[in-house]
Amino acid sequence: xxxxxxxxxxxxxxxxxxxxxxxxxxxxxxxxxxxxxxxxxxxxxxxxxxxxxxxxxxxxxxxxxxxxxxxxxxxxxxxxxxxxxxxxxxxxxxxxxxxxxx
Length: 102
Fold this sequence. Notes:
This protein has one helix and five strands; from the N terminus they run αβββββ. The protein is α+β, with helices and mostly antiparallel strands. Strands 1, 2, 3, 4 and 5 form a five-stranded antiparallel β-sheet that branches.
């Protein structure tokens, strides 16, 4: 009985880790694409997880709702922040801090 519980717990941890890696890769691609469309630089080619919650998706299923932070620059001198909201592995919305045009 104890070994079954341990296997279930380890499986849940591996699933969460695998899901998190996929969501982070999708968030990074979304941030890069959004910055290209806005004609700004996506800095450091990375995103940072800042919040994790559970929320229902559009079909009513429970999934993770993650908020990622990224940095971008319009001139190359100043850094600005943006946020990517991921519902599961789908981007829900992207917000960018106001920045001066290049």
